[in-house]
Amino acid sequence: MTNPVKGPASYFPSIEKKYGQPIAYWTELIRSSPLTRHGELVSWLKVEHGLGHGHANALVAHTLAEQRN
Questions:
Q1: Does the predicted model carry a pTM greater than 0.85?
Q2: Cα–Cα–Cα angle for 31, 54, 60, nearest 5°?
Q3: Distance of alpha carbon 62 from its chain centroid, rounded?
Q4: Separation CA 30–CA 43 (nearest Å)
Q5: pLDDT at residue number 39
C-alpha cells in the first residue's frame, strides 16, 4: 500500500489543476525571484500570479525546503 502524500506536496495536484501549470513551473518561478523570505514570496505569488494563500504557501514551503537540502 502506498502512503498518502503529506505536507506541502499534498496540494500539488489541485495547484496543477487550478492554475494549469506543472509544479516545476512554480518552483522555478520561485527560485528565479529576487525575493528570499517565505512571507514575501507567498505575497508575491498571491498578488502577481493570482494564487490562493494555501497554494502559494505550499509551493514556497516546498521550494525553500528543497533549497536547504
A1: yes
A2: 15
A3: 6
A4: 12
A5: 98
State yes or no: pLDDT of 2 exceeds 80.
no
Spatial distance between the Cα atoms of 11 and 17, rounded to a whole number of angstroms? 10
Phi, psi of 39 (to 5 degrees): -60, -40
Answer for the pair 62, 24: CB distance below 8 angstroms, yes or no: no
42 neighbors 57 (Cβ within 8 angstroms) = yes
pLDDT tens digits for range 20-58: 999 999 999 999 999 999 999 999 999 999 999 999 999
Note whether 59 and 15 are within 8 A (CB): yes
